[in-house]
Design brief:
By secondary structure, the protein is α/β, with parallel strands linked by helices. The chain has two domains: 90 residues; 128 residues, 4-Layer Sandwich (Metallo-beta-lactamase, Chain A), CATH 3.60.15.10. The chain has six helices and eleven strands. The protein has a seven-stranded mixed sheet with strand order 5-6-7-8-9-10-11, with helices on one face.
Length: 225
Protein backbone atom coordinates (compact mmCIF):
# COMPACT_ATOMS: atom_id res chain seq x y z
CA UNK A 1 0.00 0.00 0.00
CA UNK A 2 1.03 3.59 -0.74
CA UNK A 3 -1.12 5.23 1.97
CA UNK A 4 -0.47 8.83 0.95
CA UNK A 5 -1.91 8.08 -2.49
CA UNK A 6 -4.63 5.68 -1.40
CA UNK A 7 -3.14 3.04 -3.71
CA UNK A 8 -3.13 -0.67 -2.87
CA UNK A 9 -1.50 -3.48 -4.85
CA UNK A 10 -3.49 -6.71 -4.53
CA UNK A 11 -6.04 -7.68 -1.90
CA UNK A 12 -4.98 -10.82 -0.11
CA UNK A 13 -5.65 -11.96 3.44
CA UNK A 14 -3.65 -9.02 4.81
CA UNK A 15 -6.26 -6.59 3.46
CA UNK A 16 -7.68 -6.09 6.96
CA UNK A 17 -4.56 -4.06 7.81
CA UNK A 18 -5.57 -1.38 5.32
CA UNK A 19 -8.12 -0.02 7.79
CA UNK A 20 -5.43 1.42 10.09
CA UNK A 21 -3.47 2.91 7.17
CA UNK A 22 -6.19 4.88 5.36
CA UNK A 23 -5.16 8.51 4.83
CA UNK A 24 -7.23 9.47 1.79
CA UNK A 25 -10.88 9.86 0.80
CA UNK A 26 -10.43 7.49 -2.13
CA UNK A 27 -8.85 4.06 -2.56
CA UNK A 28 -7.55 2.55 -5.78
CA UNK A 29 -6.86 -1.20 -5.61
CA UNK A 30 -4.75 -2.60 -8.46
CA UNK A 31 -5.07 -6.36 -8.79
CA UNK A 32 -2.27 -8.29 -10.45
CA UNK A 33 -4.72 -11.16 -11.01
CA UNK A 34 -7.68 -12.75 -9.28
CA UNK A 35 -6.30 -15.91 -7.69
CA UNK A 36 -7.83 -15.97 -4.22
CA UNK A 37 -4.64 -15.09 -2.34
CA UNK A 38 -4.62 -11.81 -4.28
CA UNK A 39 -8.33 -11.00 -4.38
CA UNK A 40 -10.17 -12.47 -1.38
CA UNK A 41 -9.46 -9.31 0.61
CA UNK A 42 -12.05 -7.48 -1.49
CA UNK A 43 -14.64 -9.32 0.60
CA UNK A 44 -13.17 -7.62 3.70
CA UNK A 45 -14.11 -4.14 2.50
CA UNK A 46 -17.14 -3.77 4.76
CA UNK A 47 -14.89 -4.02 7.80
CA UNK A 48 -12.03 -2.06 6.25
CA UNK A 49 -14.28 0.89 5.42
CA UNK A 50 -16.48 0.84 8.52
CA UNK A 51 -16.77 4.40 9.89
CA UNK A 52 -14.06 5.59 7.50
CA UNK A 53 -14.60 8.71 5.40
CA UNK A 54 -13.89 7.06 2.07
CA UNK A 55 -16.02 8.34 -0.80
CA UNK A 56 -14.81 6.06 -3.60
CA UNK A 57 -13.15 2.64 -3.95
CA UNK A 58 -12.08 1.53 -7.41
CA UNK A 59 -10.73 -1.91 -8.22
CA UNK A 60 -8.47 -1.87 -11.29
CA UNK A 61 -7.96 -5.22 -13.02
CA UNK A 62 -7.45 -6.71 -16.46
CA UNK A 63 -10.68 -6.64 -18.46
CA UNK A 64 -10.92 -10.43 -18.75
CA UNK A 65 -10.92 -10.78 -14.94
CA UNK A 66 -13.89 -8.51 -14.18
CA UNK A 67 -16.58 -11.14 -14.64
CA UNK A 68 -14.67 -13.54 -12.39
CA UNK A 69 -14.89 -11.03 -9.55
CA UNK A 70 -18.55 -10.29 -10.16
CA UNK A 71 -19.81 -13.80 -10.85
CA UNK A 72 -17.58 -15.91 -8.61
CA UNK A 73 -15.98 -13.98 -5.75
CA UNK A 74 -19.17 -11.97 -5.28
CA UNK A 75 -21.69 -14.50 -6.51
CA UNK A 76 -25.04 -14.06 -4.79
CA UNK A 77 -24.74 -17.41 -3.03
CA UNK A 78 -21.36 -16.53 -1.54
CA UNK A 79 -21.77 -12.81 -0.96
CA UNK A 80 -25.37 -11.56 -1.24
CA UNK A 81 -24.58 -7.85 -0.81
CA UNK A 82 -21.58 -6.48 -2.67
CA UNK A 83 -19.52 -3.73 -1.01
CA UNK A 84 -19.77 -0.34 -2.64
CA UNK A 85 -16.88 -0.30 -5.08
CA UNK A 86 -16.50 0.07 -8.81
CA UNK A 87 -14.49 -2.18 -11.08
CA UNK A 88 -12.47 -0.66 -13.89
CA UNK A 89 -10.39 -2.38 -16.53
CA UNK A 90 -6.89 -1.01 -16.90
CA UNK A 91 -5.40 -0.70 -20.35
CA UNK A 92 -1.87 -0.31 -21.61
CA UNK A 93 -1.88 3.47 -21.31
CA UNK A 94 -0.17 5.10 -18.30
CA UNK A 95 -2.52 5.82 -15.40
CA UNK A 96 -2.10 9.13 -13.60
CA UNK A 97 -2.19 8.86 -9.79
CA UNK A 98 -3.30 11.53 -7.32
CA UNK A 99 0.11 13.19 -7.00
CA UNK A 100 0.75 13.23 -10.75
CA UNK A 101 2.95 10.14 -10.76
CA UNK A 102 2.53 7.66 -13.61
CA UNK A 103 1.54 4.03 -13.21
CA UNK A 104 1.98 1.47 -15.98
CA UNK A 105 0.85 -2.15 -16.11
CA UNK A 106 3.32 -4.90 -17.01
CA UNK A 107 2.17 -8.27 -18.44
CA UNK A 108 3.62 -11.26 -16.60
CA UNK A 109 3.70 -14.98 -17.33
CA UNK A 110 1.55 -16.84 -14.79
CA UNK A 111 -1.23 -19.44 -15.10
CA UNK A 112 -4.43 -17.52 -15.80
CA UNK A 113 -2.60 -14.30 -16.63
CA UNK A 114 -1.05 -11.67 -14.36
CA UNK A 115 0.22 -8.08 -14.37
CA UNK A 116 2.90 -6.22 -12.48
CA UNK A 117 2.99 -2.46 -11.91
CA UNK A 118 5.51 0.36 -12.09
CA UNK A 119 5.10 3.85 -10.62
CA UNK A 120 7.38 6.72 -11.66
CA UNK A 121 7.96 10.01 -9.89
CA UNK A 122 10.43 12.65 -11.13
CA UNK A 123 13.11 11.54 -8.64
CA UNK A 124 12.36 7.85 -7.96
CA UNK A 125 10.45 4.80 -9.14
CA UNK A 126 8.86 1.65 -7.80
CA UNK A 127 7.85 -1.70 -9.28
CA UNK A 128 5.70 -4.52 -7.94
CA UNK A 129 6.24 -7.89 -9.62
CA UNK A 130 4.37 -10.87 -8.24
CA UNK A 131 3.41 -14.36 -9.38
CA UNK A 132 5.73 -15.03 -12.26
CA UNK A 133 8.70 -17.28 -13.02
CA UNK A 134 11.74 -15.03 -12.97
CA UNK A 135 14.28 -15.24 -15.78
CA UNK A 136 16.87 -12.56 -16.60
CA UNK A 137 15.62 -12.52 -20.20
CA UNK A 138 11.91 -12.37 -19.29
CA UNK A 139 9.85 -9.81 -21.20
CA UNK A 140 9.02 -7.79 -18.07
CA UNK A 141 12.67 -7.07 -17.19
CA UNK A 142 12.86 -4.18 -19.64
CA UNK A 143 9.77 -2.58 -18.11
CA UNK A 144 11.31 -2.47 -14.61
CA UNK A 145 14.79 -1.38 -15.67
CA UNK A 146 16.31 1.31 -13.49
CA UNK A 147 13.67 1.37 -10.75
CA UNK A 148 14.74 2.64 -7.36
CA UNK A 149 12.71 0.05 -5.43
CA UNK A 150 11.69 -3.38 -6.71
CA UNK A 151 9.24 -5.59 -4.84
CA UNK A 152 9.51 -9.05 -6.37
CA UNK A 153 7.98 -12.41 -5.49
CA UNK A 154 10.29 -15.25 -4.48
CA UNK A 155 8.17 -18.20 -3.43
CA UNK A 156 10.94 -20.82 -3.58
CA UNK A 157 14.60 -21.07 -2.57
CA UNK A 158 16.96 -22.47 -5.19
CA UNK A 159 16.51 -26.14 -5.95
CA UNK A 160 12.78 -25.98 -6.63
CA UNK A 161 12.93 -24.86 -10.24
CA UNK A 162 10.52 -27.54 -11.45
CA UNK A 163 7.89 -26.49 -8.91
CA UNK A 164 8.46 -22.83 -9.77
CA UNK A 165 7.88 -23.46 -13.47
CA UNK A 166 4.81 -25.59 -12.76
CA UNK A 167 3.14 -23.07 -10.45
CA UNK A 168 4.28 -19.84 -12.10
CA UNK A 169 6.52 -18.71 -9.25
CA UNK A 170 10.19 -17.88 -8.79
CA UNK A 171 13.37 -19.23 -7.22
CA UNK A 172 15.94 -17.00 -5.54
CA UNK A 173 18.86 -16.94 -7.99
CA UNK A 174 16.77 -16.03 -11.07
CA UNK A 175 15.14 -13.21 -9.07
CA UNK A 176 18.58 -11.87 -8.20
CA UNK A 177 19.57 -12.12 -11.85
CA UNK A 178 16.47 -10.13 -12.83
CA UNK A 179 17.37 -7.39 -10.34
CA UNK A 180 20.93 -7.24 -11.65
CA UNK A 181 19.85 -7.31 -15.29
CA UNK A 182 17.33 -4.52 -14.66
CA UNK A 183 19.91 -2.47 -12.75
CA UNK A 184 17.53 -1.78 -9.87
CA UNK A 185 18.76 0.03 -6.78
CA UNK A 186 17.26 -2.22 -4.10
CA UNK A 187 14.88 -5.17 -3.89
CA UNK A 188 12.39 -6.50 -1.33
CA UNK A 189 11.32 -10.13 -1.60
CA UNK A 190 7.67 -11.05 -1.00
CA UNK A 191 5.23 -13.94 -1.57
CA UNK A 192 7.62 -16.36 0.15
CA UNK A 193 6.39 -19.90 0.81
CA UNK A 194 4.35 -19.61 4.05
CA UNK A 195 5.03 -23.27 4.88
CA UNK A 196 8.70 -22.42 5.44
CA UNK A 197 8.69 -21.06 9.00
CA UNK A 198 12.46 -20.91 9.39
CA UNK A 199 14.13 -17.64 10.34
CA UNK A 200 15.96 -17.55 7.00
CA UNK A 201 13.70 -19.07 4.31
CA UNK A 202 15.95 -17.60 1.62
CA UNK A 203 19.75 -17.58 1.68
CA UNK A 204 20.61 -14.03 0.64
CA UNK A 205 24.34 -14.70 1.08
CA UNK A 206 24.13 -17.11 -1.85
CA UNK A 207 23.16 -14.28 -4.24
CA UNK A 208 25.44 -11.55 -2.89
CA UNK A 209 27.75 -11.81 -5.89
CA UNK A 210 24.77 -11.37 -8.24
CA UNK A 211 22.76 -8.71 -6.40
CA UNK A 212 23.71 -7.51 -2.94
CA UNK A 213 20.88 -5.17 -1.92
CA UNK A 214 18.00 -7.59 -1.31
CA UNK A 215 15.81 -7.74 1.79
CA UNK A 216 13.34 -10.41 2.91
CA UNK A 217 10.12 -8.55 3.65
CA UNK A 218 8.25 -8.96 6.90
CA UNK A 219 4.59 -8.48 7.81
CA UNK A 220 3.74 -4.80 8.40
CA UNK A 221 7.12 -3.63 7.12
CA UNK A 222 7.16 0.10 6.29
CA UNK A 223 9.63 1.53 3.79
CA UNK A 224 10.03 4.79 1.91
CA UNK A 225 9.79 4.42 -1.87
Amino acid sequence: MLPELGVIFDAGTGMFRVRDLIQTETLDIFLSHVHLDHSVGLTFLYDVLFEKQVSRVTVHVAADKIETIRNHLFSHQLFPVQPNFEIKAFDESPISLADGSRLITIPLQHPGGCHGFRVDWPDRSFAYITDTTAQPDADYVEAITGVTTLIHECYFPDGHEDHAALTGHSCLTPVAQVAAQANVERMFLVHINPLDDSETPLDLDSISDIFNNATISQDEMVIDV
